[in-house]
Amino acid sequence: KQGLTKTSSRLADGVAGIFTGKRRLDDDALEELEEVLISADLGPAMAARMVAELAKNKFDKEISDLEVREAFAAHVTSVLEPVAKPIAVDRTRKPHIVLVVGVNGSGKTTTIGKLAKHYSEQGLTVMLAAGDTFRAAAVEQLKVWGERTNCPVIAKETGADAASLAFDAIQQAKEQNVDLLLIDTAGRLHNKTGLMQELQKVVRVIGKQDPDAPHDTIMVLDATTGQNAVQQVSVFGDMVKVTGLVLTKLDGTAKGGVMVALADRFGLPVHCIGVGEQADDLRAFTANDFARGLMG
Ligand code: GDP
């Protein structure tokens, strides 16, 4: 359900491989466990802490692989619980403005489409803004999602100013009494200075129309990039005030443990997760389900 099959088989098989039946938890076992955690992208800091916690209670004792996985799942749950938060859409804002940022290919446009479907089904009116004005394909793709979900898409010609597109979208959202406006953005990391200037201008223009907006700035991350996702949050965090995360492509990767590294490092809310390319492949993010899914 959480799309974690590949990650959980890496972790569960890894732990089971170390503990055939029961084994005394010695230094070698701890080291091997730490490697398994790192191989599933939980990150070195988190892996070290999980192993230390296990050693605190069980060092030199006989322990089974099931007990290890239970202990890890409990630890991961405690790290994820504080960050598991859906987007708090405020329907009195008309519109509640969500800026969606992230590296090209991370799944921004797809996530916007999935969110559009989800919130439309909840009875909200949703509008989409094709703020990645540079890539014709990105604009076209968002239009397809608009048709699929029956949500209007505000777009301009290729190369148009992203901030003025955002401005127009907010005007139209106000006129049409829209509940939720989802604004796509560019993600050209090879031109960091240009991207930063563009995103900051978009944020400024949005803020001029509503001083509290954007109400959410959500960063979309591709789980298949593993620890790179951690780096990406730092880079984007220097450009804009990221307020929440969505982790995508958990279905196709054994690196789903990066969720734990992200939660541990940044403590940013995780709103939902992407587990496929289709409109329905968006899941609520629940700490316990995710932790259990991760540890098999
Ligand atoms: P953007 O450049 O950030 O807007 O990324 P896109 O939304 O265009 O997504 C890039 C590719 O990843 C597309 O082929 C999507 O279908 C695919 N994709 C997006 N989310 C997911 C997901 O959760 N799982 C899988 N397997 N593929 C995804």
TrEMBL record:
Its EC number is 3.6.5.4. Residues 95-296 form the SRP54-type proteins GTP-binding domain. It holds the Pfam family SRP54_N. CDD domains: FtsY. InterPro entries: AAA+_ATPase, P-loop_NTPase, Signal_recog_particl_SRP54_hlx, SR_rcpt_FtsY, SRP/SRP_N, SRP54_GTPase_dom, SRP54_N_sf. The keyword Ribonucleoprotein does not apply. It catalyses: GTP + H2O = GDP + phosphate + H(+). Residues 1-80 form the Signal recognition particle SRP54 helical bundle domain. It comes from the Bacteria. It is a peripheral membrane protein. GTP binds at residues 102-109, 184-188, 248-251. One of its GO terms (molecular function) is signal recognition particle binding. It is found in: Cell inner membrane; Cell membrane; Cytoplasm. Residues 94-296 form the AAA+ ATPase domain. GO terms for biological process: SRP-dependent cotranslational protein targeting to membrane. HAMAP family: FtsY (MF_00920). Belongs to the GTP-binding SRP family. FtsY subfamily. Involved in targeting and insertion of nascent membrane proteins into the cytoplasmic membrane. Acts as a receptor for the complex formed by the signal recognition particle (SRP) and the ribosome-nascent chain (RNC). Interaction with SRP-RNC leads to the transfer of the RNC complex to the Sec translocase for insertion into the membrane, the hydrolysis of GTP by both Ffh and FtsY, and the dissociation of the SRP-FtsY complex into the individual components. This is Signal recognition particle receptor FtsY. The lineage of its organism: Bacteria, Pseudomonadati, Pseudomonadota, Alphaproteobacteria, Rhodospirillales.
